Automatic annotation (TrEMBL):
Listed cofactors: Cu cation
SUPFAM superfamilies: SRCR-like (SSF56487)
Family membership: Belongs to the lysyl oxidase family.
Compartment(s) where it occurs, according to its Swiss-Prot or TrEMBL record: Secreted, Extracellular space
Principal cellular location given in the protein's record: secreted
GO annotations of cellular component type: extracellular space; membrane
Annotated signal sequence range: 1-38
Protein name per UniProt: Lysyl oxidase homolog
Single Gene Ontology MF annotation: protein-lysine 6-oxidase activity
Post-translational modification: The lysine tyrosylquinone cross-link (LTQ) is generated by condensation of the epsilon-amino group of a lysine with a topaquinone produced by oxidation of tyrosine.
EC top class named in words: oxidoreductase
Region (Disordered): 289-308
Amino acid sequence: MPPPFPPRLGAAMRTPCVVQGQRKLLLCSVWLWVSVVAQTSPPAPTGQSQPGSKLQFRLAGYPRKHNEGRIEVFYNHEWGTICDDDFTLANAQVLCRHLGFVTATGWTHSAKYGKGVGRIWLDNVNCGGSEKSILDCKSRGWGNSDCTHEEDAGVVCRDERIPGFVDSNVIEVRAGEGVSSPAPVGPPEQRWELLAESCLTDQGVPWSWCTHPAAALTPSLPPGRLYAERQQLHYRLHSVACTGNEVHLSLCPFEFYKGNTTGACKGGMPAVVSCVPGPLFATGNAQKKKRQQQQQGQRIRLKGGAKPGEGRVEVLRKNEWGTVCDDRWSLLTASVVCRELGFGSAKEALTGARMGQGMGPIHLNEVQCTGSEKSLWSCPYKNITEEDCKHSEDAGIRCNIPYMGYETTIRLSGGRSRFEGRVEVELGAGSNGTPKWGLICGEGWGTLEATVACRQLGLGFANHGLQETWYWDASNVTEMGLSGVKCSGHEMSLSQCQNHGTNVNCKRTGTRFAAGVICSETASDLLLHAPLVQETAYIEDRPLHMLYCAAEENCLASSSRKANWPYGHRRLLRFSSQIHNNGRADFRPKAGRHSWVWHECHGHYHSMDIFTHYDILTPNGTKVAEGHKASFCLEDTECQEGMQRHFACANFGEQGVSVGCWDTYRHDIDCQWVDITDVQPGSYIFQVGGGRLGGGAVAGSRQRQPVPCHCPGLASLAGVRGAAAPQS
């Protein structure tokens, strides 16, 4: 018999993992169940639900994303809706938790996602927000409503799953429609029917089914073999004819069996699909090396995403990385990008720079793929002009990926919340058969390694990578199990990073010197306004007697120590800088006000030792001069329209940069320069990067990444041509 509530086909990744030798296969032991409604009128109610029966919830309607929609509840063997009378965000929070999301971010009224059918089960729902079940909330009672389906309520949930939640949502199709849309269905034990391939026989699996419907069913994985098995069950669908480009099975053409279905699909069998991870998720050193070679030759990449398979789309053109404008950006185009990168089809096509604003040029505009292309470059597009797009319109994607269980081999312990703690990794099975856990040596542990750990844990961005930890020893794990961990920042798990293997070598042992992380769901995204640098840059010969405070804060080149103070001068490249926060979280210094350092000479506090690095490089990358800017006043100088300032330095106030605001350091402020006294005239690269000692998590990979910045009129520098956004 079929399972009472089959897995959602669009998320076929949530499957058991079977290990065969060294090869890990994900066997999607899923019958292709499709819900079908043969009639449009609502079924008559049937008795009261059995004592102890469990309510079921789902999102429906169109158009919508996977985390929003009309809220429907399965009660008394019948699906129904909830009226929007007196509906509140607290109600939505309780319902989103029923659906497996951590909380709600909004709710909708007046059937925004379309009118439902059948019963309106609840009306005048009144929750406080902390209830464990909708049953604990006040209402008019089940089935007691004076509403119509024009008042169906919807919810918008935060796109973050409750850890360990098993998704039971399913693909639904409406009878009689060629391209189906979500529709209510009857109770699972009565309404779930088999999807059949009418020409499936004992002699083999049809090529059309083996290559195309499987691709639509498992958008996160490459098409695999189909297996057939006889069962005496009812069939409802046949002749499913996917092209392989669909992002969802419900978008494929199909036909319904009508009337008595017991004799349908004679000589055929129910269609079953088995899935294996694609090359991007394969294990082994050979596969890892092949994967790295493929990635090095790619002309497309994702940036700014916290999870695998999501991010801002960036393309390489004329040896320069740039972004893609979101005009006409669609799910089909996003799916081409996902598949080109080795993922499945797209889950979402993101617009409006939801994965952060990029830097440099915007290469492509109005990209329109059909879904069959192997590369984004094969799709029709328009070249960009300055008037067409801004980086606030950068396109992004979220791809379907297979469930690999990466989070089961890592955990955090001792932290104040689930987002922080000492990192522990699974080392295999212990003597009693239970998993054996070990610590990671903190030597060399940094932001990149913490980024991979937070990604593997599914906890978002890395706020801090800790080489020493003072967390409570909650798990009683004291053995160092891993050392020499070195990541590039793009890996999906720490096992894909370089390490010492079984030859653990850690100079400082003990739990205090184990690696730790502090993760963050959201991140700031700091972006340097490069045009301001080139507009304000100039050279000044400043007398030494005016540089005593700057020397105290190490803002001059080391050769200044040998100068004949207070006589002589230093040659300084001065400029203004403007740092914008285009991310989804405020940027704040790591240190609280109690630990800020007072500098008597300048008469101010430093909230961060180093906020920004300034470097002068030769064309081949050799550093010939450097400077830095300590953050003595990190505040919201100005904000975008509609955004409010939160940080101000006056009266020992809190420091930081709010979302949608920027902090400006003027060219006439001490240390807002690079000491170029010892630099010979020539052509150089001017590079600006963020301090690694600073505060909150930052999205993207912008550490010291040059972008074009032409600064004319520099007497001693023939071409200062680089600037980059800071990153903590």
